[in-house]
Amino acid sequence: MASSMVKYGVFVACFAVFVIVAAAHEGHDHHHMAPEPGPPENQSSFTNPSIVLGVFALLVSSLAFRNRV
Length: 69
Prior knowledge:
Signal peptide: 1-24
Protein name: Transmembrane protein
Organism: Rhamnella rubrinervis
Number of helices: 2
Strand content: under 5%
Number of domains: 1
Order of helices and strands: HH
Number of strands: 0
Transmembrane segments: 48-65
Keywords: Membrane, Signal, Transmembrane, Transmembrane helix
Helix content: 55-70%
């Protein structure tokens, strides 16, 4: 019973964050901003720090989820 309440609480919290972010982004315009320059042609996408951190976060969260289930 407590586990289902925790799962429901996490779902509600994630949904609340989603609603808050969507409401804060409403009317926000990115069209006046200059685009970021692309990576150099000789750079691999796996050396991009954001991709490496994203894969690492996905790996850590999947390992934590596997231990909880």
